[in-house]
Write a structure and sequence with these properties.
The chain is an alpha/beta fold. α10 links the parallel β6 and β7. 43% of the residues lie in helices and 13% in strands. It has one domain.
Length: 313
C-alpha cells in the first residue's frame, strides 16, 4: 500500500488517472473511498485520530468542525440529537461518529445544511431533480426525521434529510436517504422482519410487496442496496403523507468497478418496482449532484462548490 501511495503522489506520473483507476479496482470500494478522504484531510493539513482516539485507524478529525464545510447550526444539532443514530454522541475520550471522514451524516450536512443556512432550499431541491428548475416551494431542510410505520412498533425509520415544502406544493415533502460507504461495508445489511409483511397495506403496493417477501427475513437478493430500509421509509412516508404526498430520493456515493456497477443496477431495479406501484422514488449519485451543482452554481456559491468538488469528486 505504501508503494501505491508513493506512486500516486510522486512527481512525473503522467498516467496518474489510469493508475488511480487501477488502484481503485484492486481495493474494495469502501477502502478506496476512505483512502481518498484521508488524502483530502492530509491536503488540508488536518491531524487525524482513531475511533478510540489513540487507537483505531486514523480516519477521524480531532474536532467536528474540521470535518464540516461550516459548523453545525444549533437547529441541525438538535435534530441529530433527537435521532437514533447517535451521530453526535461523544465523551472526553472518543470522537463522535460524525467526526469520521467517511461519515454519511457529515457528507449529508456538508451538502445540504448550507442551502438551509442561506435560505435557498429550492436550489438544492432543483439540483437533486426533486422538482423543476422553476419550482420554488421548498422551504426548510430537516435532518434525522422519524416516520412511524405502525403504532406499537418500538422504533421508527430515521430519514437522513427531509425537505419540507410550502402548502401549495404538489408534494408535502421531499425525503432523501443518503449513503456514503455503508453500502460497500463487509458487514452487509439486514433483511425485512416478518412483522412488516403482516401489515394491512400491501394491496396497493404489489410490486414492493413482492420485493419485501423476497428479502424477509434475510436479504439474499440485494448485495449493496439496503432495500429493507428503503421499504420502511416508503411505508413511513406513506402513512404520514399519503401515497402521493412525497418523493423519495436515494442519494448514494458511486465507486469504480463491479461494486459501483452492481449498486447502480440494484438501485435501478428497486426504482422500477417502486414506480410500478406509483411511488415517486428516484436514484442519484453524489457525484452527479455535485457535478451538476458545480456546473450551474459555481459563480454564485464559489466557496461551497470548491469545497464539495475538492473533497468528494
Amino acid at each position: 500500500m505504501k508503494k501505491k501511495q508513493q506512486m500516486l503522489s510522486g512527481p512525473g506520473n503522467r498516467n496518474g488517472e489510469l493508475y488511480l483507476l487501477k488502484v481503485s479496482q484492486e481495493m474494495n470500494a469502501r477502502d478506496y473511498i476512505v483512502y481518498k478522504q484521508v488524502q483530502w484531510a492530509k491536503n488540508q493539513g488536518l491531524e487525524l485520530i482513531g475511533s478510540k482516539n489513540k487507537r483505531g485507524r486514523k480516519t477521524y478529525t480531532k474536532t467536528l468542525d474540521e470535518n464540516l464545510f461550516e459548523p453545525l447550526s444549533s437547529k441541525c444539532r438538535k435534530e441529530f440529537l433527537k435521532g437514533d443514530g447517535s451521530e453526535l454522541t461523544e465523551d472526553s475520550e472518543f470522537p463522535s461518529k460524525m467526526q469520521a471522514l467517511h461519515s454519511s451524516s457529515a457528507l449529508g450536512v456538508n451538502i445540504f445544511q448550507y442551502w438551509d443556512t442561506i435560505q435557498d432550499v429550492p436550489t438544492i431541491a432543483q439540483s437533486c431533480c426533486l422538482c423543476r428548475n422553476t419550482t420554488t416551494t421548498a422551504r426548510t431542510i430537516l435532518f434525522e426525521c422519524k416516520y412511524p410505520v405502525e403504532e406499537g412498533f418500538r422504533t421508527s425509520p430515521n430519514i437522513d434529510v427531509v425537505i419540507q415544502n410550502a402548502p401549495e406544493s404538489q408534494y408535502e415533502v421531499y425525503a432523501i436517504e443518503c449513503k456514503f460507504t455503508e453500502a460497500y461495508s463487509s458487514r452487509g445489511h439486514a433483511g425485512l422482519k416478518k412483522k412488516y409483511l403482516d401489515l394491512d397495506i400491501w394491496s396497493s403496493l404489489p410490486k414492493l410487496h413482492k420485493v419485501a417477501v423476497e428479502i424477509s427475513p434475510k436479504d439474499n437478493r440485494f448485495e449493496f442496496l439496503h432495500a429493507a430500509q428503503l421499504i420502511k421509509h416508503i411505508l413511513g412516508l406513506r402513512r404520514t403523507h399519503g401515497k402521493k404526498g412525497f418523493r423519495l430520493l436515494y442519494l448514494w456515493y458511486d465507486a469504480f468497478g463491479r461494486e459501483g456497477a452492481k449498486h447502480r443496477a440494484e438501485a435501478d431495479e428497486f426504482m422500477t418496482a417502486a414506480k410500478q406501484d406509483g411511488i415517486k422514488f428516484y436514484s442519484k449519485t453524489y457525484q452527479e449532484l455535485i457535478t451538476y451543482t458545480a456546473q450551474n452554481h459555481r459563480d454564485s456559491h464559489q466557496e461551497y462548490v470548491e469545497y464539495i468538488t475538492t473533497r468528494y469528486l
